[in-house]
Amino acid sequence: MKDKTPTRPKTTNTPADRSDPSAVSAFLKQARALSASRAPGAKKGRLILALDATMSRQPTWDLACTLQADMFDAVGKTGRLEVQLVYFRGFGECRSSRFVDDTARLKDLMVRIDCRGGHTQIGKVLSHTLKETETQKVDALVYIGDAMEEEIDDLADMAGRLGLKGVPVFMFQEGHDATAEHAFREIARLTRGAWFRFDRNSASMLAKLLSAIAVYASGGYTALEARGGREDMLLIENMRGNSR
Predict the structure, then answer these.
(1) Which of 13, 135, 193, 211 could crosslink 168 through cysteines, CB 3.0-4.6 Å?
(2) Is residue 225 included in any domain, yes or no?
(3) What is the CA radius of gyration of the chain?
(4) Cβ(242)–Cβ(53) under 8 Å?
(5) Residue span of the structural domain in which 224 resides
(6) Is 5 a member of any domain?
(7) Higher pLDDT among residues 102 and 72, named by residue
């Protein structure tokens, strides 16, 4: 992994459950509780946002940047989360920023990234996340992409190790590639994360969902369990059910 400077960042539920607006609504409600209940002085959460910046994503890159910028804005308001931006593109290029709580800097950096032809490097993203969480706990990984051109068994092995370390991976899939969907769902399952469809029709929902995941990463399950409402427990079941 290269470029650690901030200026060069480089459930038991069914598939439909994880794209169901009611489940997303539950997720958002719980996330708002996390923000309110985070103890003053508590250690900041750490979230990695990873992007596939290969050429196939060029047509909707502006949309992705808008949603991710909305996420950064929400994170900045909480003041309880450090975010690292990771992206890959071209011939083996995979870059990462530092973990920062000044998300405006990451937003500016993200909009300067341009897509370049190349193969997917999801394995590098997972491996990088493993190394980061061995140094200091990573609370969540969000990945946005549209393809998978690697060995699924290799990705599953790394995902399994992330799951053992308690790092949920939230996989956002753009498009309907069957191979990618199979891999993304498996990564989400092995890490107790979740899979969602990423498209123009769900842009508003996904912007809120990305923000909610950011808040979740800064608060964990504690606030959800303390509230104990029906929707709170539904969210916990949807995520934890992936490990069964």
Answers:
(1) 193
(2) yes
(3) 16
(4) no
(5) 21-30+42-243
(6) no
(7) 102
| Residue 53 binned pLDDT confidence (cut-offs 50, 70, 90) | confident
pLDDT the model gives residue 66: 73
- Say what percent of the chain tops pLDDT 70: 59
State the burial class of residue 79 (Cβ atoms within 10 Å of its Cβ: 0-12, 13-18, 19+).
Answer: exposed
The CATH number of residue 80's host domain is 3.40.50.410
C-alpha span between 4 and 199 (Å, rounded):
31
Nearby residues of 215 by Cβ (< 8 Å), 6 or more positions away: 31, 32, 34, 35, 74, 78, 81
Q: List CB contacts of 241: < 8 A, sequence separation 6 or more.
A: 11, 12, 13
* 3-state DSSP assignment of residue 151: coil
- Render pLDDT for 153-209 as a digit per residue (tens, 0 to 9): 999 999 999 999 999 999 989 889 999 999 999 999 999 888 888 776 666 666 666
pTM listed for this prediction: 0.75
* CA distance linking residue 75 with residue 103, whole number of Å: 7
Instruction: Give the separation between CA 217 and CA 107, rounded to whole angstroms.
Output: 19
- β-strands 81-89, 93-96 pairing: antiparallel
Average pLDDT across the chain, whole number: 74
Residue with the larger pLDDT of the pair 226 and 97: 97
Q: What is the mean pLDDT of the segment spanning 214-236? A: 54
Domain presence at residue 159: yes
Q: Is residue 36 part of a domain?
A: no
Alpha-carbon gap, residue 35 to 52, rounded angstroms: 29
Name 235's Cβ contacts closer than 8 Å, sequence gap at least 6. 23, 26, 27, 30, 224
Structure-token pair, residue 215: 């808040």
